[in-house]
Amino acid sequence: MDQLPARIDQPGQSGTWTTREIDVVETEIALLDGVPEGGGGSAVGVLLGGVLTGGPSWEWVFYVNVPIGVIVFIGLTRTLPTEPPTGSRVRLDVPGALLVTAGTGTAIYGLIGAGDRGWVSAATLGLLAGAVILYAVFVVVQRTSRSPLMDLGILTRRPVTSGIFLILVATALMISVFFLGSFYLQHHEGFGALQTGLLFLPVAVATIIGAQAAGRLVGSAGARPTAVASMLIAAVGLAVPAFLQGPMPVVIGVSLGAAGIGAAFVASSTTALSQVAHHEAGLASGLLSTFHEFGASLGVAVVSSIAAASLAGSTDVGFSQAFTFAAVTAAVSAVLALLIVPTVRPAVADSI
Q1: pLDDT tens string for the chain (352 positions)?
Q2: In 90, 140, 261, 292, which residue has its Cα 20 to 30 A from 201's Cα atom?
Q3: Distance CA 235, CA 241 (A)
Q4: DSSP codes joined into one string, 259-325
Q5: How many C-beta atoms surround the C-beta of residue 92 within 10 A?
Q6: How many other CB atoms sit within 10 Å of the CB of residue 147?
Q7: Taking the chain, what is the end-to-end CA distance rounded to the nearest angstrom?
Q8: How far is CA 56 from CA 2, 44, 80, 175, 214, in A?
């Protein structure tokens, strides 16, 4: 379990993208407000993960979130404005909330264990089938509820679905390469947890640079060119460790790939949120956050299955195959982005 330090930064990144998504709708020009903080969170995350894993134990990667959560909660209670409710009270859709939560949890649990249990095992297929059933019931409840949890029509809009596609792929790639890179550096190159964390600092910096560059590009050229360029850069970067082994090729390749992935996060947020009304911003952001988690689970499940032999320590061929799969996925996603992502810029929709 000592491969965990390179993945502790995931919550920080998730929060960064979510914060920025809201800012797009609220201020039009705040797309990159959270990028420096998110990159700094990534840097602190990999270092802290290495310190905890190499010191107390890997379990502290989870324990440390308790005091952090308490501090954040106290801070929110003191800083968030208290606005009295206006208008009529909206009834909470409890059945819908329970169904979508259960469906998402079941799907993620099924994906996480697919690498160990097998993709066609009864347990994996049963969990994924159960998730599909729960989602189907959720759709029925939403269509018949007087106060539905979400407007399902938002999923038929091309900008929103394109943004979901980009966030799904970008997160799958990011978490996959962190997972693969940390395993490779520790188990095949003999680096410790803290050393691995230090080696991943360039990845955090590259993510910042990519996101900053994408913020400028998306404002002038639009989301489609930004999405295509970001995926192509990611494909080139991830192809490096696919063909060249060793610490430096892995760090350099993953860093270049992270620059492209960071840009893809910006493109996904811009695409999904630039054309939604003010009252739909929370729903669209929630969809991005949900598929962010799906992407993380799916990415790790797929690459761990491909690299199974290497993860067990018998060969390093699996790492090359997994990085090759990631590079091909990014390249194919670039082509799909060219076809499906609309050319939108970070501007507030007319209906806001």
Answers
A1: 444 444 434 444 443 444 444 444 443 444 444 444 555 555 566 667 777 777 777 788 788 889 989 999 999 888 887 766 665 666 778 888 899 889 988 988 888 888 778 888 999 899 999 999 999 999 999 888 888 888 888 888 888 899 999 999 999 999 888 888 888 888 888 888 788 888 888 888 898 899 889 888 888 888 899 999 999 999 999 999 999 888 999 999 999 999 999 999 989 988 888 777 787 778 888 888 888 888 888 888 888 888 776 566 556 777 888 999 999 999 999 999 999 988 766 554 443 3
A2: 292
A3: 11
A4: HHHHHHHHHHHHHHHTTS-GGGHHHHHHHHHHHHHHHHHHHHHHHHHHTHHHHTTS-SHHHHHHHHH
A5: 10
A6: 10
A7: 48
A8: 12, 17, 35, 24, 39
Look up tokens 């903080």; give the residue.
37
